[in-house]
Design brief:
By secondary structure, the chain is α/β, with parallel strands linked by helices. It is built from 14 helices and ten strands. Strand 1, helix 1 and strand 2 form a beta-alpha-beta unit. The chain is elongated and about 70 Å long. The relative contact order is 0.09.
């Protein structure tokens, strides 16, 4: 009689301030992965720094039966996001309690983080010299806090063999599906995605999700030229025309513009055209040729080139992802952290 392989054990570390959605991702994805005979391929368990209730970001707590000793039994450890990381987030260091908990992890255990869970792996030194990512809104802070980490804010997840990290929120789904695909092949991952009603693979990276109009200086000597450009993005624009709006030479205008914005006039205009293209792709049914004309790119080929370079996806893929109805009142959160 053939021996049935023991399921790969995934232990999820639930930290205070956790996001319930992200806590559930490993259970939903790994728990949905089955072989051709319908047998579960993973065993998923949850532990906390101490058994009992764990605060969440929502208005309820979750009760966790296991303490950190469970980490010693894991083949894979997953650290979901938390908004109460304390000195881990503020200073890049572990508390004594976290040091003791992570000491249970056996050498060779695969480590996975979702969103801010990467802060814990970085503070423990697991990400030193490795590629990693986190939510795009935190990438700059993450890199400054952990300079030894090779942060890539443009991807949905990173895979460095035994250490994997994901960007914010739903990118945890992408990463867990990637792990299933790596462990058991595309057919199992695709079927898991189908049961979860999510795509087995998403095009592009985080760039397409960043709402990032180029900021205007509060006091700038090139403000009139910028306003003039924004009304004429669909037209051919010459540097001499911009300089004329400020009544200065091209050389003076270019120098001032770079000092105030950090980029050249041409780079700024291209970024503004990409932002307008995003809005048109999200909110209209215009063809690619029409979007190209409206944004000043001229041709659909030029539009594709610039959108792909800026967002990491084609205009068609971007529209497919973001065509859901939006209103002009939609605005990014100004709370200082990502919107969930």
């Amino acid at each position: 009689m053939a021996t049935v392989a023991k399921p790969h054990r995934v232990v999820v570390l639930a930290l205070a301030g956790l996001l319930p959605f992200e806590l559930g991702i490993p259970h939903r994805i790994f728990g949905g992965a089955k072989d051709s005979a319908g047998r579960h391929l993973y065993e998923i368990l949850t532990c906390a720094l101490a058994p009992g209730p764990v605060r969440t970001e929502a208005d309820f707590a979750v009760h966790v039966e296991h303490g950190p000793e469970l980490l010693a039994t894991a083949d894979t450890v997953v650290v979901p996001a938390s908004w109460e990381l304390g000195p881990v987030y503020e200073e890049g260091r572990l508390t004594g309690e976290l040091v003791a908990a992570l000491a249970h992890i056996r050498p060779g255990t695969r480590l996975v983080s979702i969103c801010t869970g990467g802060y814990l792996l970085a503070a423990a030194g697991y990400l030193d010299g490795r590629p990693a990512t986190t939510h795009w809104a935190l990438a700059e802070h993450f890199q400054a806090l952990f300079p030894a980490v090779r942060v890539d804010a443009g991807v949905l997840y990173t895979d460095d063999g035994d250490v994997l990290t994901s960007a914010g929120v739903a990118a945890g789904i992408d990463l867990c599906l990637h792990i299933v695909r790596r462990d058991h092949g595309a057919a199992v991952a695709n079927e898991t995605a189908r049961r979860t009603v999510v795509p087995p693979h998403r095009d592009g990276g985080q760039a397409q999700f960043v709402d990032r109009p180029v900021p205007e200086p509060q006091q700038a000597s090139t403000t009139a030229a910028r306003a003039w450009v924004l009304d004429r993005l669909h037209e051919p624009l010459r540097l001499s025309d911009l300089a004329r709006q400020e009544a200065v030479s091209v050389r003076t205008f270019t120098r001032r513009f770079r000092q105030e914005s950090g980029v050249s006039p041409g780079e700024w205009i291209t970024a503004q055209r990409v932002e307008r293209a995003r809005r048109l792709l999200e909110r209209t049914e215009l063809s690619m040729e029409e979007v190209a004309r409206e944004t000043g790119f001229g041709t659909a080929q030029s539009l594709r080139k610039h959108v792909q370079a800026a967002l990491g996806v084609s205009p068609t893929a971007y529209r497919r992802t973001f065509r859901a109805e939006r209103t002009d009142s939609d605005a990014p959160s100004d709370s200082g952290r990502p919107v969930h």
